[in-house]
Design goal:
Number of strands of chain A: 3
Low-confidence stretches of chain A: none
Distance between the termini of chain A: 39 Å
Shape of chain A: globular
Oligomer: homodimer
CATH topology of the largest domain in chain A: Arc Repressor Mutant, subunit A
Largest sheet of chain A: 3 strands, antiparallel
Radius of gyration of chain A: 19 Å
Order of helices and strands of chain A: HHEHHEEHHH
Mean pLDDT of chain A: 93
Number of domains of chain A: 2
CATH architecture of the largest domain in chain A: Orthogonal Bundle
DNA sequence: TTGAATTATATCGCATGCGATATAATTTTG
DNA sequence: CAAAATTATATCGCATGCGATATAATTCAA
């Protein structure tokens, strides 16, 4: 390596484009999600609920790779907007069970506009998209594996 | 498409793994950057300064794809830590010129430990890394192109 | 079986990101 | 050349993310 400092050049980092693209995506979603009165993080929580009907907070945290200190206040906001309901699992009172309200359920159809609006904003080929998707999930899976190893 | 709602399933989003991996990367950097008393965003600012010697805020914002409302307070913190100095460009007093202090410059060698420490945390092949890098920069470049088009 | 460990949420403090807005310096324009 | 527009920073308010810590419910263990 010519320069001792090659490894700390911004252009040689993989982390930076990941970080910048992630910010970029969130920025691009904003105008579309404003229509639903959702932030990006609130949107991915709602996506899970539109699929699952009933989820507890722990599972939500694991699925989204977030900690409860991010998710708890976020759920409070979704509750205040009238999109979700919170209740305790009678089997184990520690578990928070989250379900959609009628309003939250109704939002599902409106949400179909979001991916439509985003489609034109990401100019990748089908193949590039698939490759990107697979590499990213590989990274997430590795991380999860690490987590499990650390627990042992 | 079988299900009308396929497009809003979390698993069918490209944005989500991007978002989750970006968070994951930042989490992984934290213990390494704590040694330098830097956050991740502060670290990428310092990387630019270690390369450039002298940068103004506008260029910094463009390079990092961030707005001044993120970068201005961040520079104040780096100044308080004694890593950078701020001055005005005499040619155009609007421009903020940022340079490293001796302490900031000295941190460069210590920073070489950071990519060393990260290497083992990303389990991608050379090829996967290159592919990921290229696709991400393609996305960033498209975005920049859009920006220019909008300006016209 | 009861005190200790574990687990699931919740709270606190700090550092981003960013839209909206304010301010100061420079450039454009009529 | 003076007012208007533009440009570069700065400030404000809100919504994350997360490490550290607190609290309540459950499980484990002596």
């Amino acid at each position: 390596m010519k320069d001792k400092y090659e490894s700390i050049r911004l252009r040689n980092q993989l982390c930076f484009p990941l970080y910048a693209v992630s910010n970029m995506i969130t920025r691009n979603y904003k105008p579309l999600l404003d229509e639903l009165d959702l932030t990006y993080t609130q949107y991915i929580v709602m996506m899970i609920l539109w699929e699952e009907e009933k989820v507890n907070e722990k599972l939500l945290c694991e699925t989204l790779c977030l900690k409860s200190n991010t998710v708890t206040p976020l759920l409070k906001k979704l509750e205040n907007k009238g999109y979700i309901k919170k209740s305790k699992d009678p089997e184990d009172e520690r578990n928070l069970v989250i379900t959609l309200t009628k309003t939250g359920e109704a939002l599902k159809d409106k949400a179909l506009e979001v991916p439509k609006g985003m489609a034109c904003r990401i100019n990748l080929s089908k193949e590039e998209t698939a490759t990107l998707y697979n590499i990213l999930y590989k990274m997430l899976d590795e991380e999860q594996k690490e987590q499990r190893l650390i627990k042992c």
